[in-house]
Design brief:
The protein has helices at residues 9-23, 37-53, 61-74, 110-115, 119-134, 137-144, 150-163, 189-206, 212-231, 240-244, 248-261, 271-278, 341-350, 417-420, 428-432, 450-454, 463-470; strands spanning 87-91, 98-101, 105-109, 282-283, 291-293, 296-299, 304-307, 313-316, 321-325, 328-334, 364-368, 371-380, 387-397, 400-409, 424-425, 437-443, 484-490. By secondary structure, the chain is α+β, with helices and mostly antiparallel strands. This is M48 family metalloprotease.
Length: 492
């Protein structure tokens, strides 16, 4: 959760409406049609808001490198005749995500870049996103969704949850957690494959190894599966790139077949150059946005912390921290505060649905670790039975308040009681102890093994598997002296 924190969900929906309104209608241009004036204007208007939604644009040598590779691959699309036709941004986000919008705006997160192992993979991911734009997939999605504006769709998601059209496992996470998921609708499998094919075509034209698209999809699929196991989930359906780019695992073989069918042989990967250029890249949570360490969430700048329940896992986003488990879900966020906790709790409830009023039966006052607090629960009927929606808010003084928004089956809110009671201030020493993780590129020496290098990973669990996935190594693959590899260490 960034220092800018969560604003009202309505502001994100407004951005979605702005995007969908500009994209809607008209004949779908061919994949080779250049950027139009209206597309350029729409992209320029949406760009600052998208940066804010995904942690902001990074600067420095790593961002310049990503920009260079992105522009070089984007010009292969025919969307623009010059590299200056495109804006390529490296986002300060700890999620695996990449996307592009009309107007030549292309984005990838630092976390997804850290998962890659060569420049061809970076070019492939960015080329895939450019392919979506070149094929005007956004316009096609919006044309198919014209029956509902995104505002209506957002309300319908929450209404579906409360009325039983969605299972408890989806709950608030799809309705109000991350506004980024309201920015776009999911691409179809056909569109995904078409973007893969266009990205591979661009790789060929630029002289890269076209097999890089398959290898980065494989790494992403393995990372998704690893995240699911580490977090105690039974599936790999949560990661962000998979939410708008579904099922990377099933696309690996298709991408490899497409690359082989292209007839291209060889092509550069620029592995060592890539690894050298991303050395030192922040990995995982940025302390400026708070960090998740096991069951703990700690925000050194906001000087707060809390503990998730046993058996739950957390995902830290730009606008909120989500807490997920079999028996409920919650988000930790903030909203405008006028030093009245009752009004604050009421306003959070009021913002939940445009379709129906959700009000707590009462608002109770309490104190949590010295913090004034207030909470209320609303019971809502659904087709799957009754559910309880709870808002638990805390006054941090100086016009700052934070809250949990939780949903459980009726009578099940006690699963979050320990978490509600764990919110606390942290002192300067605890804040100073929060040190980011970074990518450290090292050269394998004689005698180094996967095991010995994995033991240097800055994690207390799954070190070997994390190392293999990070470096794209198969389960039985070893290392050779002189080879460059990535490890994750604590920064300074």
């Amino acid at each position: 959760m960034s220092r800018t924190k969560l604003t009202a969900v309505s502001s994100v929906i407004a951005l979605s409406l702005a995007l969908s309104g500009c994209m809607a209608g008209g004949e779908i241009p061919s994949a080779s049609a250049p950027i139009t004036q209206s597309e350029a204007q729409m992209g320029a208007e949406a760009h600052p808001q998208l940066l804010a939604e995904f942690g902001g644009a990074m600067s420095g040598s790593q961002a310049l490198y990503v920009e260079q590779v992105g522009k070089n691959i984007a010009v292969q699309s025919g969307l623009g005749n010059a590299r200056d036709s495109f804006t390529v941004s490296l986002l300060n986000s700890p999620v695996n995500n990449a996307f592009a919008i009309p107007g030549g705006y292309i984005y990838t997160t630092r976390q997804l870049v850290a998962l890659m192992n060569n420049e061809a993979e970076l070019a492939g991911v960015l080329g895939h996103e450019v392919g979506h734009v070149a094929a005007r997939h956004s316009q096609r999605r919006q044309a198919a969704a014209q029956r509902n504006t995104l505002l209506g769709a957002a309300g319908a998601i929450l209404s579906g949850i409360l009325l039983g059209n969605s299972g408890l496992g989806e709950q608030i996470g799809q309705a109000a957690m991350q506004g980024s998921q309201l920015l776009t609708l999911k691409f179809s499998r056909t569109q995904e494959l078409e973007a893969d094919e266009l990205g591979i075509r661009y790789l060929n034209q630029a002289g890269y190894d076209p097999r890089a698209m398959a290898s980065v999809l494989q790494s992403l699929a393995l990372q998704n599966a690893l995240d699911a196991r580490v977090q105690g989930r039974g599936n790999a359906n949560i990661p962000e790139w998979a939410s708008t780019h579904p099922d990377p695992a099933s696309r690996v073989q298709s991408a490899l077949s497409t690359a082989q069918a292209s007839g291209a042989t060889g092509g550069v990967t620029n592995r060592d150059t890539f690894l050298t250029r991303i050395d030192g890249l922040t990995y995982g949570d940025d302390p400026a946005q708070g960090v998740v360490e096991g069951r703990q969430f700690i925000h050194p700048e906001l000087r707060l912390a809390f503990t998730a329940p046993q058996g739950f896992y957390m995902v830290n986003g730009t606008r909120a921290v989500t807490i997920n488990g079999q028996s409920g879900q919650a988000q930790f966020a903030t909203a405008p505060y006028s030093n009245n906790l009752d009004s604050y709790v009421t306003s959070v409830f009021s913002g939940l649905s445009q379709q129906q009023q959700i009000r707590p039966q009462s608002i109770q006052k309490t104190t949590v670790n010295g913090l004034p607090a207030a909470y209320g629960t609303a019971r809502v009927n659904s087709n799957n039975g009754q559910v309880d929606v709870t808002v638990f808010a805390y006054d941090f003084a100086n016009n700052r308040a934070y809250h949990f928004l939780a949903i459980t089956q009726a009578g099940g809110v006690s699963v979050f009681n320990d978490m509600f009671g764990s919110v606390r201030r942290i002192d300067s020493q605890a804040a100073a102890n929060v040190i980011p993780r970074v990518i450290d590129v090292v050269t394998v020496r004689s005698g180094d093994t996967v095991s010995s290098l994995a033991s240097r990973m800055a994690y207390s669990d799954n070190q070997m598997e994390r190392f293999r996935v990070l470096n794209g190594l198969a389960s039985n693959e070893g290392l050779g002296a002189g080879q460059k590899v990535k490890i994750v260490v604590r920064g300074r």
